[in-house]
Amino acid sequence: MNRLQKLTAVDTRIFYWCNDLHRDLGMAPVSRFVSRLGDGVLYLLLGLGLALWEEELGLTFLEVGLLAFALELPLYLLLKNTIRRDRPCHRLDGFRAVIEPSDKFSFPSGHAAAAFLFATVLASFYPSLALGAFVVAALIGLSRILLGVHYPTDIAAGALLGICCGVFSLHLWEMF
């Protein structure tokens, strides 16, 4: 068994363990709610709200956030449509997801990418919110595993993509 096969086997075991625990605890409604936090609308509303009502940094936060998402989204789509990893609910025999995913492929997780991007930019402008932002981002990522639409490595890759795009955007903004 090569390294990729070993990683896939571990990824699948962790996925099943999370889903078994999730079903035993009856957490589907909570997972759905947390996952919806990462659908994107909340990021835009928070960004617009800060731009309108927080005079010192709000508008700059919104601008950097929009730049970060403008970089992240095409990269996310390129990766997802190049790698084309089937979602666990489409690949694993006898497994059924709690929700129907919006597209066919799972790697990387767009919800995780967006959540960690938002947390990275928010933490840079409002350090006192950093811990809460990253906890929410992690919960959004975990919810996607628990709902049966992502493997743990999809979440890790999405988190890495989001953090990198957030940091890159912050540095790019400082240059101009």
Automatic annotation (TrEMBL):
<protein>
    <recommendedName>
        <fullName>undecaprenyl-diphosphate phosphatase</fullName>
        <ecNumber>3.6.1.27</ecNumber>
    </recommendedName>
</protein>
<feature type="transmembrane region" description="Helical">
    <location>
        <begin position="155"/>
        <end position="173"/>
    </location>
</feature>
<dbReference type="InterPro" id="IPR036938">
    <property type="entry name" value="PAP2/HPO_sf"/>
</dbReference>
<keyword id="KW-1133">Transmembrane helix</keyword>
<feature type="transmembrane region" description="Helical">
    <location>
        <begin position="59"/>
        <end position="79"/>
    </location>
</feature>
<dbReference type="Pfam" id="PF01569">
    <property type="entry name" value="PAP2"/>
</dbReference>
<dbReference type="InterPro" id="IPR000326">
    <property type="entry name" value="PAP2/HPO"/>
</dbReference>
<feature type="transmembrane region" description="Helical">
    <location>
        <begin position="33"/>
        <end position="53"/>
    </location>
</feature>
<keyword id="KW-0812">Transmembrane</keyword>
<dbReference type="GO" id="GO:0005886">
    <property type="term" value="C:plasma membrane"/>
</dbReference>
<keyword id="KW-0378">Hydrolase</keyword>
<dbReference type="GO" id="GO:0050380">
    <property type="term" value="F:undecaprenyl-diphosphatase activity"/>
</dbReference>
<keyword id="KW-1003">Cell membrane</keyword>
<feature type="transmembrane region" description="Helical">
    <location>
        <begin position="114"/>
        <end position="143"/>
    </location>
</feature>
<keyword id="KW-0472">Membrane</keyword>
<feature type="domain" description="Phosphatidic acid phosphatase type 2/haloperoxidase">
    <location>
        <begin position="64"/>
        <end position="170"/>
    </location>
</feature>
